[in-house]
Write a structure and sequence with these properties.
- 96% of the residues lie in helices and 0% in strands.
- The chain has 2 helices and no strands.
- α1 packs antiparallel against α2.
- GO terms for molecular function: dynein light intermediate chain binding; microtubule binding.
């Protein structure tokens, strides 16, 4: 869009310059015709013709100048509108770039958080495995303790019997 706007602005500037050149030529023609009229006015028999011709020439030159000025103003307005559109486009582009940067930063944060979640999940799994192992070990220790208690009770009973026998 910006390239298109720049090309359009260049075209309008060229067209504006052409119109300005045409306006200058028209003014030069008008001045030259005015000079010719002055030369003709020196002859007395053409005085009335000169006046009407000057009047027509001035009217024609004035209307052409007005038309060129309107065209020039229209082109200036178009150029300004294109410049404004170009600025708006640049601002939008800058905002888009800023949003892209922010989006990248947020993506990095999300990735870090996902990595952290994965680490926490692995840690939880490790703790669950360790907990299960500890529960098994506890059960084994309880079985061994019950066996030892039964052995101890049996030994106490045997020792009491032996003591009673003695």
């Amino acid at each position: 869009d910006r390239d298109t706007d720049k090309k359009r602005i260049e075209e309008l500037l060229e067209e504006n310059m052409v119109l300005e050149i045409a306006q200058k030529q028209s003014m030069n023609e008008s001045a030259h015709l005015g000079w010719e009229l002055e030369q003709l006015s020196k002859s007395t028999d053409l005085a009335d013709t000169r006046k009407s011709f000057v009047f027509e020439l001035n009217e024609c030159a004035s209307s052409r100048i007005l038309k060129l000025e309107k065209d020039n103003q229209s082109l200036q307005n178009t150029i300004q509108e294109l410049r404004d559109a170009s600025l708006t486009s640049r601002e939008s582009s800058l905002k888009f770039v800023e949003l892209e940067k922010e989006n990248q930063q947020l993506s990095k944060k999300i990735e870090k958080l996902q990595n952290q979640i994965e680490k926490e999940k692995q840690s939880n799994q490790d703790l669950e495995t360790l907990s299960e192992e500890l529960i098994k070990d506890k059960e084994q220790v309880q079985v061994v303790m019950e066996t030892l208690k039964a052995d101890k009770d049996r030994q106490i009973k045997d020792l009491k019997q032996e003591n009673d026998h003695l």
